[in-house]
Amino acid sequence: MATAREAAFSRQELMVIEAARQLRDGDIVFVGTGLPMLATALAQRTHAPHVVMVIESGVIAPQLRRTPISVSDPKAMYRAMKLGTLREVLGCLLQRGLIDVGFVGGAQIDRYANINSTQIGAPGAMKRRLPGSGGANDMASHCRRLLIITHHEKRRFPERCDYVTSPGFLDGPGGRARAGLNPDFAVTVVTDLAVMENDPQTCALRIVRLMPEISVDHVRAETGFRPETAPDLGVVPSPDADVLRTLRHDVDPERVYLKSEDVASPVRR
Amino acid sequence: MPSSKVMTAAEAVARFVQPGAVLGMGGQNIGRCPMALTHEIIRQRIGGLTVVGCNLSLSMDQLAAAGLIRRTECGTGNLERFGTTFCWRRGIENGSIEIEDYSHLAMVSRFLAGEMGLPFMPVRSLLGSDLLWAPDGAATPGKAVVTENPWDPTERVVLVRALCPDVSIVHAQRADPLGNVIIEGFATHEPEMIRASRRVIVSCEELVSTEEIRAHPERTTIPFMYVHAVVVQRYGAFPTSTYSYYDYDGAQISAYQDAARIGPPATDEYLRRHVAECATFDDYLRRATDGDRLMALTKAMQELM
Fold this sequence. Notes:
Structural class of chain B: alpha/beta
CATH class of chain A: Alpha Beta
CATH topology of the largest domain in chain B: Glutaconate Coenzyme A-transferase
Number of domains of chain A: 1
CATH superfamily of chain A: Glutaconate Coenzyme A-transferase
CATH class of the largest domain in chain B: Alpha Beta
Strand content of chain B: 15-25%
Shape of chain B: globular
Order of helices and strands of chain B: HEHEEHEEHEHEEEEEHEHEHHHH
Oligomer: heterodimer
Order of helices and strands of chain A: HHEHEEEHEEEEEHEHEEEHEHH
């Protein structure tokens, strides 16, 4: 039986849990640090024990015990099956086509799921420099499925990215094929307000599930473009108490990434 | 067979790092950044550098703080949980640092071309993205060329230029006096970058004998012919980690980041206290830590293993 305290969960916790639900048992997941690593570790400890993590510094199939804070944090290498090179994972696994899911954290994401992590301001008119691509362009170029987890803020979801670091559907239907990219591609964006996926026809991100107590209008107010809704629009299910317990006590017990202030104003079932 | 390449960091940097050099940077993020060699470049004020690598982090940002970088070619500049590389960002935004952006796979492919004596390498990343173009958005030839597969014209690839650094700096776990290098754990872009470089300086935690190398040749990551100087420096990547030797020191990374976030004069003061006033990296280690701290980082790594 879940206690009352366990039953209360923060929106950020549900976002991580919902992202973990997107992974299927046996998926090979190319994973970035932060919330993607938390969600993947949670999936491994719950419904998908055979999910394989690949980390861009060259780490293959680790079993995370404590929360790493970087792709080169020794904690990201715990009980790995192989510690190799960047070429081995980005080239020989990702570009080679052996990765099922690319899983990245927040940046700027536009209507067609293009990602900007390079700069605010158009090329030639930069206002703010961001970290750059890293392996994100490689993931978006070569994964069949891209999973993005990010907080939902208007500035993160512009109509069109200032700079396309990592390709989504580019300018819409047929965009990837015209650019020479694999058109077999799907995007899921999990936020603290909703889950969005690309419309199979228009390629635009649309709302497929809402977080509990969140309305379509609320999501649209926090989105720089106007997302349509899927015909079978649903609500993100509340977490099972044991999944929530695993997330809190096993996956991020030191609350490196889970914000404690969120728990102070929890959503209640 | 060449004789011993063991020398001090000061000698190695003075001999092999020239002003204006293309400098290959080893390490990734908070792992195995060549901090001892970087401090020496800062002490000797060798500037006008083009710093190249995949993820550039603490070592690159300290060179930027010292005003020694003219240009970078890389996939990212950041320190993940510790924030961005603030001096690099400031330099790009105020126009004092030129930048050429790639993905990490595109950068490692450039080193791969270089290490195999090829002029370029095809990749299937970058297609459709703004990374194909120069920073002003112009389609300048020379950065990347989109072309079709000669055997299958329906397939498109991007050609990226070979990159052969004038000199690379890398911190490894072990090396012998001839320059045979053993990298343990993750190796990022270093094997390709080292073999593509004209000169290589390796600092290492431990010097091993050539007999030991010969006893376990399968453990050698890089054979001696690529390496020009071997610098023995315990904790030479501090405050970043060295796999199987010691964990990173979050407090010391944050101490730099606190200064970097502000910029001058805080960064000048940081570099004065931690680099210029220290004659050697050991002096810096004594200044930045008490005796127990380094041992605690070693213990923390042992617990992770």
